[in-house]
Amino acid sequence: MIAYLELLNQWAKKFETTSDILFKIQAAQEAMICLNQHQLPKSNLPLLSFSERDIFSNFALMPLDDDLAMFRQEIITTFGLWHIPNQQWLMDLHHFISGRSVLEIMAGNAVISAGLRQLNDQVASTDNFDWRGQDILAPEPWTYVEQEDALKSVKQRTFDVLILSWAPDTQNIDRQVLTALRSKGFTGDFIVIGEQNGVTNSPDFWQNAILSEPEILNQNHQPFDTIKDAVWLVK
Question: If pLDDT is split at 50, 70 and 90, which confidence band does 132 have?
Answer without folding.
Answer: low
